[in-house]
Design brief:
The protein is an alpha/beta fold and 313 residues long. Helices cover 42% and strands 16% of the residues. It binds serine.
Length: 313
């Protein structure tokens, strides 16, 4: 029988779709969705959990006999810059709480997301390698880098089976992102359809690594399904698909909506974007456990617009 899975942060951009996908693969009875909110709809059992409260996590894990956790609750880059203490606390304590449950062997396997935000202004910007100078300059990036160190530490010291990916900006149509620097690449599609124009909070030439959600879900489930000995990196894997600037994605949208107009009004998120890489070298993920992306900027744009148009009907 498959291990029972708990998704913490099931109401978020990744969580919502990941729960649906896990239910399809393992069956609704083998998945439990949880979030700090109480009104999440899920195809499987739902529990309200505060990741800062180890008692509430433990109760749910024991009640459902959970063996595998996907810990997605976090404050993203722009929100964490507004509330640095809260960002650090949620992103760090949440992870440490679950790592402790692994050390105590309450659960066997953990997925915890890292991010391109672990890199900083001194990192090589193009084809950023797996192992390089990092020095993140945002609270979010600092929490992700520290988290990676903790994951590797628990693996080396206690043999905990924790797996992680450095997600690029994720683009999706089912559940909106919140508080990230890469969110523009989602907003732009909604506004293109609703208003035919979009004011971008990043400048025209700001190239960032991005990925369409179906690829991100395959990567996430892929690394969790890989044989343990194939997951050789226990901090977090670089993960890449596509890279583009606001100008480039706007031009792609214009192929579908010819009158679409983009304007630019960079805000504080520009400095965050400027500190991150433009493209990522993910050779290790491809080599070790067979990662391969499917969507290009072109196929993603066609698919996004198709689904958003359908949803408007
Ligand atoms: N998409 C995230 C953000 O912009 C990066 O991990 O904060």
């Amino acid at each position: 029988m498959a291990n029972k899975i708990l998704v913490i942060g099931a109401g978020g951009q990744i969580g919502k779709e990941l729960v649906e996908e896990l239910c399809k693969i393992y069956g609704n009875d083998n998945v439990v969705a949880s979030d700090i909110k109480h009104d999440i709809s899920a195809p499987c059992a739902y529990e309200m959990v505060n990741v800062m409260d180890v008692h509430s996590i433990t109760t749910v894990i024991k009640k459902h006999n959970v063996k595998e956790v996907y810990l997605l609750a976090a404050l993203l880059s722009a929100t964490a810059e507004k509330y640095p203490e809260q960002g650090w606390k949620l992103n760090m304590e949440g992870l440490l709480n679950v790592l402790e449950l692994m050390r105590e062997k309450v659960i066997d396997k953990l997925f915890w997301p890292s991010s391109i935000a672990v890199f900083g202004p001194n990192t090589p910007k193009v084809n950023t390698p797996q192992f390089t100078v990092m020095e993140p300059s945002t609270v979010y990036g600092i929490s992700k880098q520290a988290g990676e160190r903790w994951c590797e530490y628990y693996f080396r010291r206690y043999g905990t089976d924790v797996r992680s990916l450095r997600y690029p900006g994720l683009i999706s149509y089912k559940s909106p992102p919140g508080g990230g620097t890469t969110d523009y690449a989602v907003d732009i599609y909604y506004e293109a359809l609703a208003k035919g124009k979009y004011e971008c909070f990043l400048g025209p030439d700001t190239v960032l690594p991005m990925m369409y959600m179906p690829d991100a879900l395959r990567a996430t489930i892929g690394i969790m399904q890989a044989d343990a000995d194939k997951v050789k990196i226990r901090s977090a894997y670089n993960l890449a698909a596509i890279s583009f600037s606001p100008t480039e994605i706007a031009n792609e949208i214009k192929k579908h909506i010819p009158n679409f107009e983009i304007s630019y009004k960079p805000d504080s998120r520009q400095a965050i974007a400027d500190s991150w890489p433009q493209s990522i070298d993910d050779a290790e993920a491809r080599e070790h456990w067979g990662w391969k992306h499917q969507y290009s900027m072109e196929t993603m744009t066609t698919d996004m617009l198709l689904h958003l148009k359908e949803a408007k009907k």
